[in-house]
Amino acid sequence: MTKLNLLLDQMLLNIEQHIWPVDTKLPSERDLATSFNASRATVREAITTLKQRGLIRSLQGSGHYIQSSETNTQAELFVWNNVELSHGELREYRLAIESQCAYLAASRATQTHLRALERAHRHLKHAHITQDLKAEGLADARFHLAIAEASGNRILAQSLKSLFSLLRANVTQNIGTLSRRPETRLRLMKQHTALFESIYYRKPDKARTLAQEHMAFVDRILADH
Length: 225
Known about the structure:
Blueprint: H1 3-16, H2 29-35, H3 40-52, E1 56-59, E2 63-66, H4 74-80, H5 87-108, H6 111-130, H7 133-150, H8 154-162, H9 164-178, H10 182-200, H11 204-223
Antiparallel strand pairs: 1-2
């Protein structure tokens, strides 16, 4: 993945998750370059690309602003069609694709993917240690998204990314429930670390098994509440 594509993914995530809501003025090119560890030339190219996609508008003398797009995520389409997704349905979806994502990530992740996954795991550990449940829910979801990205399968990655807001809510709710039992949260963190290491050290079969065990464990614990 090129630096431009990586930056675009990061900026799109901020837009999709309403970290940058519609009509938000973007930070300066210098601040964006610092925040995303990118050159200002790459930032300018990313902004141009997002403008072409209709996600950003520029006002002369004022700056760049987020605008709504006619392109809708899968999550938005579900809402518009009055389909109510249960957390059970979402967990079934995750179980169906995340074990395969883990297997593929361990098989063929690039060094860029592995560095991104390592950062995601580090952020997850930090949120866990500080017991910031909201941050942990977001970091947990981003960790699983990083695995999907590392799979190298754009369909799998985009599918999970499109449902990221639902995934974040699901994970955050799970952590809120599991936080009543600190030993359970600790076990979850150990599972994430084991999954990360199996991918990082390229053990595909183990990664797939650990992903399956992780989701089965979450389902089993939640079923008791």
